Amino acid sequence: MSWVEIIGWSATAVGALLGFPQLFRLLRTRNVAGLSLLAWQAVLVLNVIWFTHGVRIGQGPQIVTNSVALASTLPLLVLLARATRRSLFAVVAPSLVAAAVIIAVDFTLGSLAFGLVATIPGLMSSSGQSVELVRARRVDGVAPVFLALAWVNQCLWLTWALLVHDPGTIVACSITLTITAFNLIWFILRRLGLRALFVRASDEPVLPCTEPALARS
Question: Can the keyword Membrane be found in this entry's annotation (predicted)?
Fold first, then answer.
């Protein structure tokens, strides 16, 4: 196996398992402080569209990766829906509609158009978490391992793209790598005492996802 294959499969494995540290932390602590619902809705879009794209072009790694990733994304959204006292349908439906639109692009306009449109939820998944890390009064619900793995995953994909000379992936990963690096650094600064920025007076503090809250949903 070549270095390109090793790095590519390593990136695939990290991407598939990326959400589990956050899921385990949420199951253990029931604390959603600092988590971005929008970011995880975007992750659901990504999992669905890339799974479907993998089926369309017959690529097993994409199918397996996103199947495993869905096993962490869906439970996370269930817990976030309960914590924010929203119906699961209201949380999941926008993601499924967006995924359906992007899948339609894939089947009608081809892979290039699909790849361009797919960057939108990709950026939303990272930048949505950035906004929450900056504005949330507390961030102790965020799993640092998740943020670190997100950065490592982009490093691996960028390295792979440089080795295979894939300009599209190089550009996309460079942008996402910058955002994930910001998220990790900003999280560390918040845990060291940096206060939230741009908090509106009307914003309510983020409450832990306690068992009573779960029971009421």
Answer: yes
CA 163 to chain centre: 25
Assess whether pLDDT exceeds 60 at residue 211: no
* Best CA proximity match to 15, nearest among 60, 56, 61: 61
DSSP state of 141: T
Instruction: Tell me the average pLDDT across 54-64.
Output: 81
Instruction: Write phi, then psi, for 31 (nearest 5 degrees).
Output: -115, 120
Q: Both tokens of residue 217?
A: 């949903």
d(CA 30, CA 28) in angstroms, rounded, equals 6
Cβ atoms of 44 and 121 closer than 8 Å? no
Q: Above 60 in pLDDT, residue 207?
A: no
DSSP 137: S
Q: What phi-psi label fits residue 36: left (phi over 0), alpha (psi between -120 and 50 degrees) or beta?
A: beta
- What is the Cα–Cα distance from 75 to 79, expressed in whole angstroms? 6
pLDDT for 107-117, tens place per residue?
A: 999 888 888 88
Q: How many residues does the chain have?
A: 217
Claim: this prediction has a pTM higher than 0.70:
yes
pLDDT tens-digit readout, 19-48: 999 999 999 998 999 999 999 999 999 999
Q: At what angle do helices 144-164 and 20-29 cross, to 10 degrees?
A: 180
